[in-house]
Write a structure and sequence with these properties.
The chain has 335 residues and is α/β, with parallel strands linked by helices. Helices cover 36% and strands 19% of the residues. The protein has 2 domains: 199 residues, inorganic pyrophosphatase (n-terminal core), CATH 3.90.1640.10; 124 residues, Diaminopimelate Epimerase, Chain A, domain 1 (Roll), CATH 3.10.310. The strands form 2 sheets. A 6-stranded parallel beta sheet has the order 3-2-1-4-5-6. Bound molecules: manganese (II) ion.
């Protein structure tokens, strides 16, 4: 993580009264935590922040929404009344391309924009009003730096809790490679505000519905192993999602779970979102970067956690992508 110069961003923020905050489609704890932290910071500075996301708030993050701060954009919704906002801040995403249907709607507003992100290969306009640091373990840590530089007096338990949530989820509860000395020291600083890490962990990770575990059980029956179990891949069909009485969002975390199996280096999920729309998740234990494969097919992500979407059927997606995945293993690894 490099040292950032926040002066230009602080100058832009200080001139703005109405600030629109957003994060990527299918938001995670990092994007949502970054939004919530800046929302409360701006409120305390007397500004008018507004959070608008392209996806509904996932149920495990409802604890961040005590004050009803998260708003969801509905496809086709008229948001022209937001044209008088002074500033748009895109958090944990590099451009409006990552915002689903909200992206084009925001582009039409033509607002001054700041991106704060840690994803590599984003389309964030380079310049002095964005901070992109792919070595930062979470966007939350960048937001913490910004708030400390801009208005440290606003930091309280609520802001610390939001930022801790981002840091916890993007480091897989402090177990991924991005868990550095700085990660732990920053987490410790959040704890000083009286947050309860055990409680936050339970909100996020111990709130699964039995139906989700039933779906996981179905999926586990059909994991395919190759290259001496180093590669594990599986698919989730719409029929399975329906049979378990689950919704698509409940498959979040399945790929991480499969990666946790002994010997598995790379896990790949093919999720049938609709008849001809397949979402793929790639997770690596750290020996094989997998984001180049995601990029090859128009996706992206971090070296060891990436994804992509393809407008084809399930069989076709597997036939197209699996040969590329297999190229990262040596032939002698073949089982
Ligand atoms: Mn993130």
């Amino acid at each position: 993580m490099t040292k950032h110069d926040w002066r230009n961003i602080i100058a832009k923020i200080s001139q703005a009264a109405k600030i629109l905050l957003t994060t990527h489609h299918n938001p995670d704890g990092d994007g949502l935590g970054a939004e919530a932290a800046l929302y409360y910071c701006f409120k305390r500075l007397g500004k008018s922040p507004y959070i608008l996301n392209s996806s509904v708030l996932p149920p495990e993050y409802v604890f961040l929404n005590e004050d009803g701060i998260f708003n969801t954009y509905r496809a086709g919704q008229d948001i022209s009344e937001l044209a008088d906002y002074d500033l748009l801040m895109i958090l944990d995403a590099g451009s409006t391309d990552r915002l689903g249907a909200l992206g084009p709607a925001l582009n039409a507003l033509n607002l001054a924009t700041i991106c704060i992100d840690h994803h590599p290969f984003n389309n964030c306009p380079a310049g002095n009003t964005s901070v992109i640091d792919e070595h930062a373990p979470a966007t939350a840590i960048l937001i913490y730096e910004l708030i400390k530089a801009m208005a440290p007096q606003t930091i309280d338990k609520k802001i610390a809790e939001a930022l801790y949530t981002g840091l916890m989820t993007d480091t897989g509860s402090f177990r991924f490679e991005n868990t550095t000395v700085k990660t732990m020291l920053t987490a410790a600083e959040f704890l000083k505000y009286g947050i309860q890490p055990g409680l936050i962990y339970r909100y996020v990770y111990e709130n699964y519905r039995p139906e989700r575990m039933k779906l996981l059980g179905m999926v586990l029956q059909n994991v395919q192993y190759e290259f001496n179990n180093q590669l594990a891949w599986f698919s989730v069909t719409r029929e399975q999602v329906a049979a378990a009485e689950t919704v698509l969002d409940e498959v979040d975390g399945f790929t991480d779970f499969i990666r946790s199996i002994k010997g598995v280096e790379v896990a790949v999920m093919f999720l049938e979102v609709r008849a001809n729309l397949i979402r793929m998740n790639f997770r690596s234990k750290g020996r094989y970067p997998i984001n180049a494969i995601a990029r090859q097919f128009g996706g992206g992500g971090h070296p060891f956690a990436a994804g992509l979407v393809m407008e084809v059927g399930l069989t076709e997606a597997i036939k197209t992508v699996m040969p590329a995945v297999r190229t990262i293993f040596q032939p002698e690894d073949k089982s």
